[in-house]
Design a protein that fits this description.
Elements lengths: L1 H41 L7 H4 L6 H20 L11 H5 L2 H32 L4 E6 L6 E3 H29 L5 H14 L1
Antiparallel strand pairs: 1-2
Helix pairs in contact: 1-3, 3-6, 5-6
Length: 197
């Protein structure tokens, strides 16, 4: 089971990295299509390279970068970023005893689960409704049809369910095993294991 989780995590990391790389290369393509004709014209190569001098700026790149950005944010938050990697305001949490930290962790996890599940159906209803609207310039490469916005924003519905499931598991794990270790506890534990060996 641990091996399966490790491979799933690596695949999710790869998908997120591929989306970020795609954003970067599409951005470069956008810059190239916008400024290449100007550079060729300023170098006096318009007659020598007429095809490159006639390149038009690509409008679809802006929309595709926006779609990929939405996907990379919610996909990564759901499947890549670990709970202890999130930015937290934990001054009070770290100042209280471990048993009270467990209470804080369970209450916080249950609040997140409740909030996500409470908001899921209205959110999904809206995501389903926007299937009527479609992308402006980006088309499905297989069919040539414009992409329904439901497809673009469906990742948010998946994000909500995955985050609810992760925090439900965190609440159960905290009840069974106590609160998650703080960064300081992990560092001290790592130092103790290296000192012992």
């Amino acid at each position: 089971m641990t091996k399966l989780l490790k491979w799933t995590s690596r695949i999710a990391d790869g998908i997120a990295a591929a989306m970020l790389a795609s954003i970067f290369f599409i951005f470069l393509l956008q810059i190239g299509s916008r400024y290449l004709p100007k550079v060729i014209g300023s170098l006096g190569l318009s007659d020598t390279l007429p095809n490159l001098a006639a390149v038009e700026p690509l409008g679809w790149t802006l929309e595709l970068i926006g779609i990929l950005w939405v996907w990379v944010i919610f996909f990564s938050c759901a499947f890549v970023v670990r709970e202890y990697d999130h930015v937290k305001f934990d001054i009070i949490y770290l100042a209280v005893p471990r048993k009270l930290r467990a209470v804080f962790a369970v209450i916080s996890a249950i609040a997140i689960v409740a909030g996500m599940l409470y908001a899921f159906l209205p959110t999904w209803d809206y995501i389903d409704w926007i299937k009527l609207r479609k992308t402006t310039t980006v088309r499905n490469p297989f069919t040539g049809a414009k992409i329904p916005l439901r497809t673009v924003f469906s990742i948010y519905g998946a994000f909500m369910l995955v985050v609810a499931a992760r925090y439900a598991w965190l609440a159960i794990d905290t009840i069974r095993n106590g609160p998650p270790k703080t960064e300081l506890e992990m560092v001290l534990e790592a130092e103790n294991t290296t000192d012992a060996s």
